[in-house]
Specification:
This protein is an alpha/beta fold. The protein has one domain: Decaprenyl diphosphate synthase-like (Undecaprenyl pyrophosphate synthetase, 3-Layer(aba) Sandwich). It contains seven helices and five strands, in the order ααβαβαβααββα. Strands 1-3-2 form a three-stranded parallel β-sheet, with helices on both faces. The protein is globular.
Length: 221
Amino acid sequence: MDGNGRWARKKGLPKIAGHRAGAKSVDEITKAAAGAGIRVLTLYAFSTENWKRPKEEVGALFKLLEDYLVKEIARLKKNNIRLSVIGCLKDLPASTREKLTQAIESTKDNTGMVLNIALNYGSRDEITAAARAIAGDVKKGAIREGDINEELFSRYLYTRDLPDPDLLIRTSGESRVSNFLLWQISYAEIYITNKLWPDFRKEDLEKAIREYQKRERRFGG
C-alpha cells in the first residue's frame, strides 16, 4: 500500500494525514474484495525496513492501526471476515499486540474472506527463519534431510495456512516488490497502477481484477 507520504506532500499535509487517508482505502478495498469473492486479501502494512522511519511517524502508524482494530472488529464480524497477521510480532508495541490478539480471537470463527495484514514483515527474514527452523528439526530428528522440498518449506513460512497469491497489486507506479512474499509470489501476476494508495478505490480494484482475468497463467510452463 504505497504512496501515503507522497499523497500528503502533494496536498501540503503532514505525513500522518496520508496514513489516515490510506486507512480509508483499507476500509473500502477490504469490503470490495470480500464482495468480489476474493478468498484472501493481504495488505503490506509495515515492513521490517519501516523501523528506519522517524519515531514519531512509527508511533503514529501503530496508534492508527490500534484505532482501526478497535473500530473495525464489529464490521469484520458482521461481514464474516477473519483477521490474520504475518510477520515478527514480538517486536511490536505491547498495546498493538494486545489489540491484534483481541481482533484475531474475535474473528477466528468467521468463514468468509481472510484479511491478512503483514506487520513487521520482511520476506528475507521469513525465509531465513524458515531455513533455520528446518535445520533445527533435522538436527532433532523430527524430519530427514531428504524430506525437504517446496511443500515442506512452505509449511515453515508465516503463510503456511494460506494459498499463494494469484495477483500482486502495486500502487503509486513503483516497479519493485520490496521484500514482500518473495517465495509466495513466484507465479503471481503483477499489476502496477500509478494511483497512490489513498486514492485507490473499489473501481481501481475491479480494474486490476479485470486485467488479471485477461492474463494467461503459465506457472513457469
